[in-house]
Amino acid sequence: MSDITAPTGPKLRKKRGRILGNSGLIVAATVLGLITLMAIFAPFIAPHDPYAQTLDDRLIPPAFIDAEMADPRYLLGTDNLGRDYLSRLIYGARISLLIGLLTMLVSGVIGTVLGVAAGYFGGRVDTVVSFLITTRLSLPVVMVALAVVAVAGGSLQVVVLVLGLLLWDRFAVVMRSATMQLRNLEYVAAAQSVGCSTPRILVGEILPNLIPALVVVASYEMAQAILLEAALSFLGLGVQPPLPSWGLMVAEAKEVMLFDPWVILLPGLAICVLVLAINMLGDGIRDVTAPEGRS
């Protein structure tokens, strides 16, 4: 009874045309796919151990910065501890993607459950959830994250848990609004009239039609989580050394950025490209799935 049906014939061709005609979606998917593959196959791609220190090879610049001082063993140079920068950038993609994905899953589950419950049941449930959303929105994410991480200690697990518990509000707001629209549609009324249980209606009828909006919000929150992790690591309260986090690499480079700006430029550019690709992917999916076929 769900409104979502598998596209066939002309509908399938039209959807394929929307996807192929959306250059932003294609570029974003390609860039994000390459970064994901780089993260998955990091042990086979990285030319050096990202943790190995060679103090005799400290701050060797890349060839495109200083061809005379460059070393062919280090394509992107080394950091202030003599670690290969290319290898740390490759492994750093793992940390950023892992934090973004896990944070998005934690916040997505919390926000979706609350939003769907509030939108479908209304009444007191909606009042309680709206109060929780208002309370969460009154708390500044960065300040709360800094306080909690400072008390609990910085680690990958703590960062994921803290961010996941702070970034669910947008999921809840969007899912609540979308569910309130869907619960009054005919196919939901038809499911109710034939005696379908509430869990069956929510899982079989409501949730499938929330997927397009859910994907867009998830892409935004994933990018937000990556930026917040970088900010926490930059302040020394996020992922701890010697993990090759891009945010931590920026923090470690701030002491020498006036003399070797490329040390902070490379991880900063990597964060920018990843976040931009995730946001463009979400926008592209929104445009492709929009009924009016926006471009």
Describe the structure.
The protein contains 12 helices and no strands. Helix 4 runs antiparallel to helix 5 and helix 8 runs antiparallel to helix 10. The longest helix is centred in the middle third of the chain and has 37 residues. The N terminus is likely disordered.
Identify the overall geometry: elongated
Stated plainly, the CATH topology is called: MetI-like fold
Please count the helical segments.
12
Instruction: State the end-to-end CA separation.
Output: 30 Å
CATH superfamily: MetI-like
Global mean pLDDT: 85
Structural class: mainly alpha
> Order of helices and strands, N to C?
HHHHHHHHHHHH
Q: Tell me what portion of residues adopts beta-strand conformation.
A: under 5%
Q: Please summarize the sheet with the most strands.
A: none
Alpha-carbon Rg, integer: 23 Å
Poorly predicted residue ranges? 1-6
What's the assembly state of these chains? single chain
CATH class: Mainly Alpha
Total strands: 0
Structural domain count = 1
- Bin the helical content: 55-70%
What CATH architecture label applies?
Orthogonal Bundle
